[in-house]
Amino acid sequence: MSDDIFPPSPSRRRFVGVAAATIAAGSLSQLAFAETNQLIFSVSKPAGGDKTAIRPLRVHVPEAQLTDLRRRIKTTRWPDKETVTDDSQGVPLAMMQELARHWSTDYDWRKCEAKLNALPNFMTEIDGLDIHFIHVRSKHENAMPLVVTHGWPGSVIEQFKIIDPLTNPTAYGASASDAFHLVIPSLPGYGLSGKPTGTGWGPERTARAWVTLMKRLGYDKFAAQGGDLGGVVANVMGKQAPPELLGIHVNFPATIPADIAKALQAGDPPPAGLNDEEKHAYEQLSSAAKKRRAYALEMGTRPQTLYGLSDSPIGLAGWLLDHGDGYTQPAAALTSAVFGRTVNGESSGAMTRDDVLDDITLYWLTNTGVSSARFYWESHFNFLAAADVSVPAAVSVFPRENYQAPRSWTERAYHNLIWYNRLDKGGHFAAWEEPQLFAEEVRAGLRPLRK
């Protein structure tokens, strides 16, 4: 039927116009996606095409991706303000809107990019997956090789401030004999590492991959360090006990005895016979189980459902910032850093708002919100059950961690405990919050392994 016979009505004209605009918008959207889905780094081609070769990597994010990020932040559709005056319903609206303002106007990703590129970055394929890592060798002879693993919601950015203190100890009042050669990999599905396309890349496989990595770099003896998920990987390395592993240092110890875990799962009050340290730890763990596990349960059971982490920068930021306890530990340091002041008496230490945004922006640019969450699914929540590690182990207990591991539990979980220390400051993000103190702990904890 032609329009000559039936002239288009105003409503039909509006429909056609809307349809045309929708089609055009769709085309533009696809174009924008193509432009902002470019690789953000380049890797040198290996001789002979050997992907297992150690290949230098350099980061350079196309400006189109940064423009798109700022546009998405500025066009965020915000929810209503929370109906409480505290953070009991989640990350407060005012906090997120202030973060969004700074992120979209004042924040400069290029500064973080320059820091990354100032470090020796590499890529190598292990067990079919590209693994990114930073490798900084100390100038001191006889430095101990150490693989340091980050956690969630962290990345290699978490470790920036500990690199020089650990590789160059004499500049910080320590001995040359305390030096380390550092290898800092990105977990599978995190940052610049590849995203697994099949199942099986959990802590066990990652632990084996780190041994392969260290040996590939020429280290026949080395130690491992980790906090949060990095602590989980280090504990698994200790349990697997490869002959190359000298020992481990963790600041996220896995010490919960089976009977204590059973009582926690049942929601029981503290069992009789606990000493003061054990009772305090039980109460902390009980509180965490009741109030701070929502994010972990979702990632551990339904990570693919988190589509908003890929579509909305603010959705991603809110998810990464919230540990179910925004004004207390372990997320308090992040909250104080975002506000730029001490909140609820919880200091951010050396962590700044831009440190936090560097980390969140890396997640956004690499689109790893969901792929990083799958590591929880692969881990089956086996984070804090007694590690049952026999290799030499050093444990640092920071006061603002999820729980303060009692010495009694720690000695039962780590059968060759060479260092145990309870500190008076620092929290879950110890390397970020207290880099100098953290470096001192790593030096002291692993010193008994040096010959």
Automatic annotation (TrEMBL):
GO molecular function annotations of the record: epoxide hydrolase activity
Domain Epoxide hydrolase N-terminal: 54-158
Entry annotation: catalytic residues: 228 (nucleophile), 376 (proton donor), 428 (proton acceptor)
GO BP terms: epoxide metabolic process
Residues of the signal peptide: 1-34
Pfam families registered for this protein in UniProt: EHN (PF06441)
Cross-referenced Gene3D superfamilies: alpha/beta hydrolase
Assigned keywords, A-Z: Aromatic hydrocarbons catabolism, Hydrolase, Signal
Keyword Hydrolase in annotation: yes
Family under the similarity heading: Belongs to the peptidase S33 family.
Protein name, entry field: Pimeloyl-ACP methyl ester carboxylesterase
UniProt organism field: Paraburkholderia diazotrophica
